[in-house]
Structures are given as C-alpha cells and as structure tokens.
Amino acid sequence: MPLFGNTFSPKKTPPRKSVSLSNLHTLDRSTKEIELGLEYGAPVMNIGGQSLKFEEGQWIAESGGNISGKEMQRLKKRNLQLEEENNLLRLKVDLLLDMLSETTAESHLLEKELEELKNHSRRKK
C-alpha cells in the first residue's frame, strides 16, 4: 500500500501541431520570384579551385564530364600502364628490326661469299 495514495501517473500531453519555421509557403508566386530570383539554377560550389555543379542528381565538374575522382585515378593509372606497355612493345619492335637487319646483312655476305667460291671453282676447271 503506497504511503501517499495512488502511484505516480502523469497526464498524457496532447500531440503538437506541425508548424513550419519557413514563411515561404505563405508567399504568393510573384513575391517568391522577387525574394528568391526568377531562376533558382543548379547549385554550384567551389572546392579546392575546382568548380562543381549539381545536375541530374550528380556533382559534375564545370570543366566537363561527370567522372568521379576515383574513376579519374583509375583511368590515369590504366593510362600509365598502357604507356609503359607501349614503350616496351616499341623497344621489342626496334630490337627485332635490328636483329632482322643483322641477319639480312649476314645472309647477303654469305651469298656473296658463296657466289665468289662458285666463280673461283669454275675458273680452276
């Protein structure tokens, strides 16, 4: 049995009405246009010297394209790999051309020697 009567039971508070802190919904269209400007435009921000514009749900660099930083790094890395591979292949082609030139020169020398030997043996007969 409680000492001072019933147990503690506070009254329920009535639900609050949702009240907007903005008064823009009360303004008519012409007042909104005067206050906010005729065209709101896409949001633009400048970060680290790079200007970004929010269009169709994505931040796009003003310089063009809608490539993310990660994608740009991946493409730069891939480009570097391809340049290195290209340089290696050029080196291999140069090496193969040198080898071909050397082999061709040796072949011509051997043909010339063979021809001279044939001519020398014909004279002896």
UniProtKB/TrEMBL annotation:
Matching PANTHER family, A to Z?
Answer: LEUCINE-RICH PROTEIN
Identify the keywords attached in UniProt to this record, alphabetized: Coiled coil
- Which regions form coiled coils? 72-120
Q: What is this protein called?
A: Chibby
Record keyword rRNA processing present: no
Question: Is Coiled coil among the key words of this record?
Answer: yes
